[in-house]
Amino acid sequence: MYSAAMSLSAASSAAVASGAASSRPNAMRPAAGLRFCGLRREAFGLRSVRSSPQAVAARRSVAAAATAGNGAAGSGGFDYDLVIIGAGVGGHGAALHAVEKGLKTAIIEGDAVGGTCVNRGCVPSKALLAVSGRMRELQDEHHMKSLGLQVSAAGYDRQAVADHANNLASKIRSNLTNSMKALGVDILTGIGTIVGKQKVRYGKVGFPDNEITARNIIIATGSIPFVPKGIEIDGKTVFTSDHALKLESVPDWIAIVGSGYIGLEFSDVYTALGSEVTFVEALNQLMPGFDPEIGKLAQRVLINPRKIDYHTGVFASKITPAKDGKPVLIELIDAKTKEHKETLEVDAALIATGRAPFTKGLGLENINVVTQRGFVPVDERMQVMDADGNVVPNLYCIGDANGKLMLAHAASAQGISVVEQISGRENILNHLSIPAACFTHPEISMVGLTEPQAREKADKEGFEISVVKTSFKANTKALAENEGDGLAKMIYRPDTGEILGVHILGLHAADLIHEASNAIALGTRVQDIKFAVHAHPTLSEVLDELFKAAKVNAAGVSHSVNEPVAA
């Protein structure tokens, strides 16, 4: 699970989050009578409905049976209360929460604890981006002089930079492993396969397999880089993000196929280290997954001033690695007509066209489950659905493998939600409250709907939306840093004050977004949050100004900070 969704799949991921792209009409529709991760029910337009006595009794029975397994063996004659296949961020989060709930838990990992995020994604990429950020600042002579600083020519040691990324991944991987061991999670090594109802087989190649039983099973196998047909990967001159994070070279000229989160972050790294970059994007605009207004500003700030050019509306139909003294060859065809447009000759090519679910070999055929484009079908509770559309009892799938929202922290949140359910507390995760971030310089972050998505929803459901914006140029802290390039934007309902989406480009945008995401998660309305107090001078005042700029026509009473709010 990469740090923030995928290149060409970013738009579809956002659509899934809004419910627009789901093949299951009710996949994102909250059902009455459920607990929404502590969210206020009115955020979903639902009345407060109590569960029936029968439903409450059923949940208590499940919880009692599950928590009874906090001993040498799992409950009900099972080896474990919970077995998790995959020890990435999602599996790790679920395992720790399960132990907290008193469940005897095992996690199966066939590669390395931490999964893609820790070993080949979020974590090492942030190490490289930390370097690129400092290099970019040191190389900006005008910026340095404006602060009264004089800096000689900045340089870097490629291997030392690569070691920094690798060492960070190793440290986090060790931390995750130790945290699970300390809490009593059994870490089982091997490839996990579901062989029947509540049965899992695991083992390493060349060794005998082991079979265990579990009251509940969570699939958390993550994803791998998606490589389109016609592209030959050699890992040296044509490679995916898995290879790029090793930073074995810094090519003079690199083509990046895909201009989503992954491609954009690597363009930040490579240009800071001296490379020239060419984007190849299938859609008609760069950064297709972003709010269009933010995307345009990002192009002005992150693309145009740098050694970056781009081709949009084209496919890379064939890419041949460099060999025998010849460069990497990229054949471009028109995305609509499929006619040949031109052939690029570059030193290297990074394939950043998104990620594909890693679900092969899970044994899903043994339980009548058929994947959809490789994704495991699930309902809103992350329960796996079989080929007939029925829930497979006691089987769940979280994270990239289900395709709902391909973010590491989304996987963790889904895992925690599942554990809540199997512990007897029904729980539905609001995916629209999950933030995403792109760690370029400056950063981009977002939560909820883009403006076009919000307008489409408003037209369909018959309500109006409003948009307010504020600039980082009006923020004291940003100006003190000489980092005034930035914009924050909020889409909301003026009739109710409901926040539909917030998008930020600017200094520390990835940190600032959480006030907005938590407001959406808690159902906090604009007319209430505008009374929150923010320290001065801080970047948080960017959002403070954004909330205060909103005009709400709701007839309801807004509460002051000193006025108690009835539960």
UniProtKB/TrEMBL annotation:
From the UniProt record, list the reaction(s) this protein catalyses.
N(6)-[(R)-dihydrolipoyl]-L-lysyl-[protein] + NAD(+) = N(6)-[(R)-lipoyl]-L-lysyl-[protein] + NADH + H(+)
Q: Which residues form a coiled coil?
A: none
Which cysteine residues pair off into disulfide bonds? Answer: 117-122
Q: What does this protein do?
A: Lipoamide dehydrogenase is a component of the plastidial pyruvate dehydrogenase complex (PDC).
Q: Where is the active site?
A: 536 (proton acceptor)
Q: Which cofactor does it need?
A: FAD
Could you tell me which residue ranges the Pyridine nucleotide-disulphide oxidoreductase dimerisation domain spans?
434-545
Concerning SUPFAM superfamilies, the annotation shows: FAD/NAD(P)-binding domain, FAD/NAD-linked reductases, dimerisation (C-terminal) domain
| EC numbers, comma separated | 1.8.1.4
Q: Which GO terms describe its cellular component?
A: chloroplast stroma
Write down what this protein is called: dihydrolipoyl dehydrogenase
List residues binding FAD. Answer: 126, 192, 221-223, 400, 406-409
Amino-acid positions noted as binding NAD(+) in the UniProt annotation, renumbered to this chain: 258-265, 281, 354
Taxonomic lineage: Eukaryota, Viridiplantae, Streptophyta, Embryophyta, Tracheophyta
Cofactor binding description: Binds 1 FAD per subunit.
- Name any Gene Ontology BP term: response to arsenic-containing substance
Q: Where is the FAD/NAD(P)-binding domain?
A: 80-415
Annotated family: Belongs to the class-I pyridine nucleotide-disulfide oxidoreductase family.
Species of origin: Urochloa decumbens
Q: Where in the cell is it found?
A: Plastid, Chloroplast stroma
A Pfam family per the record: Pyr_redox_2
| Complexes and interactors | Homodimer. Part of the plastidial pyruvate dehydrogenase complex (PDC) containing multiple copies of three enzymatic components: pyruvate dehydrogenase (E1), dihydrolipoamide acetyltransferase (E2) and lipoamide dehydrogenase (E3).
